[in-house]
Write a structure and sequence with these properties.
120 residues; Immunoglobulin-like; five-stranded mixed sheet; four-stranded antiparallel sheet; 1 helix
């Protein structure tokens, strides 16, 4: 009888935990905004800066960000933050209207990239 109670309580606890976890919970996955891919980069006007946001479910540490391909967009200091950066266009290198790649990393070694297409 005690074995059946343990099984019942275990299933009840597992069900309760599942009910409390939101359906789009994605641990160890950094979600970026704006989100651009190599085939569909996010358009950003070279006339002004934009804000890059990073979120990772269950993570409360700091993130770092850097431009790893391109010279138009520069992530402003502080490079290590809780997940928000100002990214600014840098003068004449933006006139090429290229697509650039910005990488965000957490302190656990997870990373994500977003692709930004410079537009007028």
């Amino acid at each position: 009888m005690k074995s059946a109670q343990r099984v019942f309580l275990s299933l009840t606890a597992a069900g309760a935990l599942a009910a409390c976890t939101h359906s789009n919970y994605m641990p160890n996955v950094i979600q970026l905004s704006p989100k651009g891919t190599a085939s569909h980069p996010a358009d950003q006007s070279i006339a002004k800066s934009f804000e890059l946001i990073a979120v990772e479910d269950g993570y409360t540490g700091e993130f770092s960000a850097q431009t790893i391909v391109g010279t138009c967009w520069v992530v402003q200091a502080p490079i290590m933050t809780g997940g928000a950066w100002t990214v600014v266009p840098q003068g004449s290198s933006c006139s090429h209207l290229d697509t650039e790649k910005i990488q965000v990393k957490d302190t656990n070694g997870h990373s994500a990239v977003t692709y930004i297409r410079s537009v007028q």
